[in-house]
Specification:
Helix content: 25-40%
Order of helices and strands: HHHEHEHEHEEEHE
Distance between the termini: 29 Å
CATH architecture of one domain: 3-Layer(aba) Sandwich
CATH superfamily of one domain: Type I PLP-dependent aspartate aminotransferase-like (Major domain)
Strand content: 15-25%
Strand order of the largest sheet: 2-1-3-6-7
């Protein structure tokens, strides 16, 4: 009986071109990228090149790319990293009710640690209620995390629109000696889980307006973590 695989939202096969490209670094060029000898320097060069390729896709600097072991690890790093680094600014986090477990379980963990989490409702199409977002944003909010494309129902959230709402909330207007200035508070930061969007939607960070973005290679024919 012929098997037809349709669950690319879960994972994908390794593209033969990816496997061919990686083969040397799985066999002969296996050095530790932190080592100073030639085998290690070669591995570091390849990693730096990969970081540059990813940065070009996202429209960011290579130094802004953090390589992790999985999409879950990336989301955890974003959420716990911001929460811990900015807990002196506030203890409020906002997520949607239909996030991936990588985000929802992180949010539940933060609640146990004393953070306050708001779970946004979605409509019948699975789209986040933007009016509710506007109402719950407050001076204690340090992070908003909304999934770009949902892994179960395929809903594409209006990420750029959400980013504008957050940016407007962060904007503070000052008038000094007839000079009108606009400054922006650092928090809240905006994170999106874009694992399901890769290969289908634009990932340009500046266009989306996000501060942190999570990707997962196993969704786009890279090796599984």
């Amino acid at each position: 009986m012929k098997q037809i695989y349709l669950d690319y939202a879960a994972t994908t096969y390794i593209d033969p071109r990816v496997l061919q490209k990686m083969r040397p670094y799985l066999t002969t060029a296996y050095g530790n990228a932190s080592s100073l000898y030639s085998l290690g320097r070669e591995a570091k060069t390849v990693i730096d090149m990969a970081r540059e390729d990813i940065a070009e896709i996202l429209g960011v600097l290579p130094s802004e790319i953090i390589l992790t072991g999985s999409g879950t690890e990336s989301a955890n790093l974003a959420i716990f990293g911001i929460a811990k680094a900015y807990q002196d600014k506030g203890n409020h986090v906002i997520v949607s009710k239909i996030e991936h477990k990588a985000v929802l379980e992180s949010a539940k963990r933060l609640e146990k640690e004393g953070f306050r989490v708001t779970y946004l409702d979605v409509d019948s199409r699975g789209v986040v209620n933007l009016n509710e977002l506007k109402k719950v944003l407050n001076k204690k909010t340090i992070l908003v995390s909304i999934m770009y494309a949902n892994n179960e129902i395929g809903t594409i959230q209006p990420i750029a629109e959400i980013a504008k709402i957050i940016k407007e909330f962060k904007k503070k207007k000052l008038e000094i000696r007839n000079w009108k200035l606009e400054i922006y508070e650092k928090t809240p930061f905006f994170h999106t889980d874009a694992c399901q969007a890769a290969g289908a939607l634009s990932l340009k960070v500046k266009d989306l307006g996000v501060d942190l973005l999570t990707l997962n290679g196993s969704k786009i024919s890279d090796p599984k973590e």
